[in-house]
Amino acid sequence: MTGLRSIIVLIVISLCFVVACSKSKKSEESEFILLGTQGPLTGTVNYFGTQILGGVELAVEEVNRTGGINGKQVKLLSFDSKGDAKQSLIIANTLVTSDVCAVIGEPTSGAFLSSRSAYERHNIPVISAGATAEGVTEGADYVFRTTLQDSIGAPYLTDYLIDVKNYKNYVIITNTSDSYSVSLSNFFRNRLRERKANIVAEGKIFGNPTEVSAEIRKLRGKDIDVVIYTGYYQEAAVILNEMGKQGIKAVMAGADGLQQDVFTPLVGDLGIGTTYYAGFSPNTDNELVEQFNQLARQKNLQSEVFAAQAYDTVNIIFSIIKKAGIVNCDEDSRNKIKSGLAKVRNYEGVAGTLSFDDEGNALKAPFISEIIKTSDGSYSTVVTE
User: Do the beta carbons of residue 310 and residue 56 sit within 8 Å?
Assistant: First the structure.
């Protein structure tokens, strides 16, 4: 009996230890409001991921310096997806088990689409600060984006090019390996046709080419005002440099993948006049923007659309958490965050005024920027709209 009593005592002590450890672990976790983020920090589109993470970190550091939220410091869990769709889903499946309140999701549309289902299944709000393709939030209650939609931006820029710049003749070049580029080309093409503008030619590239001379040669001898490229800055630079070699003089236009700070180092003066739409401009005369620019400089971060939209995204989440009195990341808290996001109307952020529609898409006005060369020989942009 003595031996049996000893065994029972040991079992009870062990159970108490397990319970104590469990409580201690839960107590330790509850010290923080956990926020997740995933995106490409390495790889070919790492710029977007690092800028998103930088914007998130700015907002987190700022709120923690001022005492946190509802007495809790914010802790960030960050993962590198390399922009790969399969890796994005693996990371999402990891984050859903990490007691996060919400996740700043992938900035590229394909990777965001591949990972969003995991968050939807586990009732965790996920918000992209970069995905622009159509349908990325469709049919999902916990999925949002703070990004300007291409269905708004592309027609807006097209009207600007026609009505303000008086450009007549257009070329559209599409990266056929990229669903984002294909979708964006459709928006530009449809608007140009609606406005009865002259589409002189259409070109195609595939993947990340380093040589496009044959495709650009097809444009020689044609009267061209604008070449619309619907992919990212790396391919756009290859196209524009080849246009320069072949003596084809036309400005380039497109979406926020052509941002000046990453584009002009690759093309120099050839980039002057390039015009693009985005959900933010650092050159807007606005006190919030000036404050953000200063914060970004202190962190050696580019003040641009991805960082700005990520910064706004996190601050929207923080405002909801604060208002709802949330102090942990249980399912009830996540549902409150989701409900709060769905009700966001006319939020004044550094990237403009934002509301969410019924599908979780951001409703906001585009910023039209044109690349210029300043008097000191550096490159910048002017906000034209």
Answer: yes
Instruction: Report how far residue 64's alpha carbon sits from residue 33's, in angstroms, rounded to the nearest whole number.
Output: 11
Q: Is the dihedral of CA 54, 56, 62, 65 positive or negative?
A: negative
Closest CA to 277 of 171, 176, 145, 184: 184
The percentage of the chain sitting over the pLDDT mark of 90, rounded to a whole number, equals 84
Find tokens 């030619």 and name the residue: 201
Instruction: Please identify, among 278, 298, 321, the residue that sits at the C-terminal boundary of a domain.
Output: 278
**What is the chain's mean pLDDT, rounded?**
91
Under the banding of pLDDT at 50, 70 and 90, the label for residue 30 is low
| Ranges of H-type helices in the chain | 2-29, 46-65, 85-95, 109-121, 150-163, 179-194, 213-217, 233-245, 260-267, 287-298, 305-324, 331-342
Residue at 113: amino acid letter: L
Say yes or no to pLDDT of 1 above 60. no
DSSP letter for 383, please: E
* 276 three-state secondary structure: strand
**For residues 295 and 61, what is the distance between their CA atoms, to the nearest angstrom?**
11
pLDDT grade for 63, boundaries at 50, 70 and 90: very high
- 234-239 contacts, C-beta under 8 A, 24 or more apart: 234/44, 234/208, 234/266, 235/175, 235/205, 235/208, 235/209, 236/263, 237/263, 237/266, 237/267, 238/209, 238/210, 238/211, 238/212, 239/173, 239/205, 239/212
Domain count, the chain: 2
Residue range of the domain that includes 228: 151-278
Q: Are 190 and 263 in the same domain?
A: yes
pLDDT digits (tens, 9 = 90+) for 243-298: 999 999 999 999 988 989 889 999 999 999 999 999 999 988 899 999 999 999 99
**Do 144 and 157 fall within a single domain?**
no
Q: Say how many C-beta atoms besides its own lie within 10 A of residue 287's C-beta.
A: 8
- Both structure tokens of 234: 């790396």
**Inter-residue contact 168 to 225 (CB < 8 Å):** yes
Query: 8 vs 16, 55, 94, 191, 336, CA distance in Å?
Result: 12, 55, 38, 78, 45
Nearest of 312, 342, 364 to residue 151 by alpha carbon: 364
